Amino acid sequence: MKKKTFILFPLLAMFLSSCLFDTDDDGLSSWLSDQGMPSSYKVQMVTVNDLKPTSAELYKDSLPRSAGVFGTFGASAGMVHDAVFDFAVDSAFLADLKAADSAKSYLSLYLFDAVYWSKVLPSTVLPIEDEVNVNISWTLSEKLTDAELNALETVVDSEWIDGLKSWKTKKTADTTVSVSITKKDSVLVLDLPSAFIDDVRKNSGNRRLQLRVSAPEAPHAYRFYGPSVGLLVSPILYMVEMEKDSYRGYRSLRAATLISNREECSDCLVLHGGVKDSLLVEFPSKPIMKALSDFYGDEFPYDAEDVRQSVVMAQVTFYRDDSKGSNELDMPIAVEAYTYTGDKDSLVCSRDNYSKYNDSLIAEKGHPNLVFHDGDSLTLQVTTGMRDFINRASDGRSFKMKMVLDRSLVLDKDEYFYGSNSYYVNSKGDSVRVFFPYPDYARYDFSSIKNTSTTLKLWLASKRGEEE
Predict the structure, then answer these.
(1) In this structure, are 144 and 159 located in the same domain?
(2) Is residue 270 in a domain?
(3) What is the pLDDT, as a whole number, of residue 22?
């Protein structure tokens, strides 16, 4: 088979440097040097059009999680978030409560101000004024000794949360609460149903109380501080003795969020934000190998590791349609790409950094890895995974990538991009927020991936040299 002859042009490498690395004219040369290759290696682009996945598999997140720092209850974008609290109630209080002529109870949740008081929160989000039907369920333990009651302080949170997977309550009651949230509000008060307080008053002695708050029909998910962030903002259960005009509050020992997915379409590929949903997409190796064979004029893959070229950058572009999605914070959301490296039987999945981008294009159209944004495409960089895939394709592997919804992007056309930071300091010394600090409870339907083609672009630094 006749092989193509490549003459190595240093100027071409520098030209491509300005395209790929934008502001760093030595970017490509530095990258090649880091890989142990001369800066004169030629870089060219290969495009694989009409690449269709062989499979797309959704992994739903339904595991209970700690709400020690902040928690959520309510519903949003096809997900329901229940809050569960763990209290230790002593015998003296239950005796006083039992003797009271009348009583009421309410739960005070301190709103997570990092969300609701943020200066970059769109004005369309607040105020929130909702009438919410809330289901309260609870369980009271048998009587506990003083030592057993004190031991509740030392319960390992992870063990308690794991037990919530099978925790069922026999006592339950419904109530209606008014939810009002503005930038001036700091506390959300939930009046608890009379059936709950009546049941608690029938008991005596030291008790462990576990309380679950569910609002599956709520129009929003409401965020609050958990019990691990300090006494001033911990959720507190108040039981009020009306005759004596006194009250006593119990701070939650711990809290958790239980997640349930209410999506009705079992075949849809719907990712949710704010939880750990992920979408695994698998592409066949044959069209990628054929494109490389056609381009270079020799066989792909080798029967061993193929290191005749290295991937400088790889991008996968999907068609997207935002109309089937929804987001609460009304900002574009970044999509993170994860790829697989290593031996076929022991692959390691890790985030593929979004590290090379075109400043001028971003300033005009915004970052390409966003949903709920202008345009109808989603472009993700998969450089690390594609580099490893091409080198090891002789073992018969396919190319796999995973997608998750990341945080909302405040500055969609700012050429600075995140790394691990939510903000940066500009030339004036001002802190500029790039990402909203907490995820949006959003949903996005990627079902079109199954029916539409994607485009793969590869920028390759050839290691062949001159070939006859």
Answers:
(1) yes
(2) no
(3) 40
Are residues 231 and 363 located together in one domain of the fold?
A: no
Q: Pick the closest to residue 235 from 109, 137, 113, 74 (CA basis).
A: 109
| Continuous segment of H or E residues that includes residue 163 | helix 157-163
- Sequence-distant (6+) residues with CB within 8 A of 57 are 279, 280, 282
pLDDT of residue 24: 41
Q: Which residues contact 269 (CB under 8 A, 6 or more apart)?
A: 56, 58, 279, 445, 446, 447, 449, 450
Comparing CA positions, the residue from 396, 395, 397, 291 lying closest to residue 339 is 397
300 falls within a domain: yes
Torsion of CA 29, 31, 34, 35, to 10 degrees: -100
- Note if the bond before 127 is cis, omega within 30 degrees: yes
End-to-end CA gap in the chain: 11
Asked if 279 and 402 count as a contact pair (C-beta separation under 8 A), the reply is yes
Single out the residue of 31, 8, 4, 57 nearest to residue 383, CA to CA: 31
**Domain range for residue 173?**
65-261
Question: Are residue 254 and residue 322 in the same domain, yes or no?
Answer: no
Counted domains in the chain: 2
Report the pLDDT value the prediction gives residue 426, as an integer from 0 to 100.
Answer: 76
Same domain, 45 and 72: no
**What is the C-alpha separation between 26 and 37, in angstroms, rounded?**
14
Instruction: Please say whether the beta carbons of 43 and 12 come within 8 A.
Output: yes
Residue 386 · residue 351 · CB < 8 Å: no
Report CA-CA distances (Å) from 463 to 41, 289, 303, 331. Answer: 7, 17, 17, 43
Residue 272 lies in a domain: no
Measured in residues, the chain has a length of 468
pLDDT tens-digit map of 245-284: 667 789 999 999 999 999 988 899 999 999 999 999 999 9
- Give pLDDT tens digits for 200-246: 999 999 999 999 999 999 999 999 999 999 888 999 999 876 666 66
Shared domain check, 442 and 333 = yes
The parts of the chain modelled with pLDDT lower than 50 are 1-25, 467-468
Q: Specify the long-range contacts of residues 146-154, CB closer than 8 Å, at least 24 apart.
A: 146/206, 148/206, 149/88, 149/90, 149/206, 149/208, 152/86, 152/88, 152/208, 152/253, 153/88, 153/253
Write down the pLDDT at residue 12. Answer: 39
